[in-house]
Specification:
Length: 72
């Protein structure tokens, strides 16, 4: 679970068991809408310097998404 979260994934409460052995977890990652990174770049070109990402996700997932969008 920690490994998935460190990779910027959110682990949901879906665990895969085989008999009495844990064999998998489900990790989700947000995918930004197409063109969002470019839109943020255009805002910066217009002089907007402060852009924030608001999320209730775990910090590693938020950081991964922010980095992908060029926010941080």
């Amino acid at each position: 679970m920690q490994q998935l979260e460190q990779q910027g994934r959110t682990v949901v409460r879906v665990w895969v068991w085989e008999e009495s052995r844990l064999v998998g977890l489900l990790g989700l990652a947000d995918q930004p809408k197409p063109g969002l990174k470019e839109a943020i770049q255009q805002l910066r070109a217009l002089g907007i310097r402060h852009v924030e990402l608001l999320t209730g996700d775990n910090p590693a997932a938020a950081r991964t998404l922010a980095e992908a969008l060029g926010i941080c």
